[in-house]
């Protein structure tokens, strides 16, 4: 049996981050070493609180939760309250939080964790890349302790925060630029593939049929997410972006990938934060990223439903 992949999950919960946490905690193919949080879908205080809430309702214990950057490397924080609501996890009602915050020095905590591991760790990032870029700049030696960085962000096509910029990259383009040029192997999971993971009525029915308090919370989260996606972008169902980063570690066949050159537009008047993906090698510059292209949606949703079912067996989630 193959040893599980050790991961640190850096996130900004966030409805889709919540499901990424559940998948990482539930599936034995990955070993969730820590959850670090960053400002993005909501302020840092709220994203750190939300990570703790998800661990509460999903019965996830023993995983350190740490908080990191309150804003990007440059400029003011960009918050996606219009998508995720005032709490960042609007929809369900959560009780008093029980899971503690392990550290308010998230970058320092992850630095020491990486240095202490016997084997390189995969860093999964589902929010702005501020924490990861800060870590790489402050402690360059840890680059050798990272097996690869898998991040949800960017697109080979259009954006969602601006016509060409996806939210996580738009929120901190300089951080994304540092990560992509760090020399650490990088996998980009962009909107072009995450928009193939639509949580439609069939998916909601499968989750709801589990009949557990946790499954009801998940349905409530996705129903709220569905409303904002319908109002803002006219989607018939919400795309579950973030868990794809974890799913491809569990089952590499979930997504097809290509190697390509990816650069971040840092100065464009109308395109700042865009991911410039050279799929056809028109620039002649060497590839620096693995880029997700096509999702096997059936395999993906099987992983999500199985994770919720697994956690439902020993969680005490209430709504």
TrEMBL record:
Keywords: Glycosidase, Hydrolase
GO molecular function: purine nucleosidase activity
Superkingdom, taxonomy of origin: Bacteria
Pfam families: IU_nuc_hydro
GO cellular component labels: cytosol
Keyword Nuclease on entry: no
Gene3D superfamilies according to UniProt: Ribonucleoside hydrolase-like (3.90.245.10)
Transmembrane segments: none
SUPFAM superfamilies: Nucleoside hydrolase
GO biological process, one term: purine nucleoside catabolic process
Record's keyword annotation contains tRNA-binding: no
Residues in Inosine/uridine-preferring nucleoside hydrolase domain copies: 7-302
Protein name per the record: Ribosylpyrimidine nucleosidase
Organism: Amycolatopsis taiwanensis
């Amino acid at each position: 049996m193959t040893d599980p992949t050790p991961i640190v999950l850096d996130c900004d919960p966030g409805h889709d981050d919540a499901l990424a946490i559940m998948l990482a905690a539930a599936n034995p193919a990955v070993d969730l070493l820590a959850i670090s949080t960053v400002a993005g879908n909501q302020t840092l205080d709220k994203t750190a609180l939300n990570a703790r809430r998800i661990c509460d309702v999903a019965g996830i214990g023993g995983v350190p939760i740490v908080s990191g950057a309150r804003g990007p490397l440059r400029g003011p924080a960009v918050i996606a309250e219009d998508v995720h609501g005032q709490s960042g996890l609007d929809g369900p009602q959560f009780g008093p939080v029980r899971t503690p915050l392990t550290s308010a020095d998230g970058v320092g905590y992850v630095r020491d964790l990486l240095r202490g591991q016997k084997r390189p760790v995969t860093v999964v990032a589902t929010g702005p890349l501020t924490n990861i870029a800060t870590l790489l700049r402050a402690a360059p030696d840890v680059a050798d302790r990272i097996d690869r960085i898998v991040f949800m962000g960017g697109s080979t096509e259009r954006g969602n925060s601006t016509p060409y910029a996806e939210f996580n990259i738009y929120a901190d383009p300089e951080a994304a630029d540092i990560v992509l040029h760090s020399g650490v192997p990088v996998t980009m999971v962009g909107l072009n593939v995450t928009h193939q993971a639509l949580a439609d009525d069939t998916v909601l029915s499968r989750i709801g049929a589990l009949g557990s308090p946790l499954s009801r919370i998940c349905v409530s989260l996705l129903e709220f997410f569905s409303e904002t996606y319908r109002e803002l972008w006219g989607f018939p169902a919400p795309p579950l972006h973030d868990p794809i980063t974890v799913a491809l570690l569990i089952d590499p066949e979930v997504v097809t990938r290509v190697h390509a050159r990816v650069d971040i537009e840092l100065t464009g008047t109308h395109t700042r934060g865009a991911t410039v993906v050279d799929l056809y090698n028109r620039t002649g510059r060497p590839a620096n990223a693995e880029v997700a292209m096509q999702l096997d949606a059936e395999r993906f949703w099987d992983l999500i439903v199985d994770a919720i079912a697994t956690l439902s067996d020993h969680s005490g989630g209430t709504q």
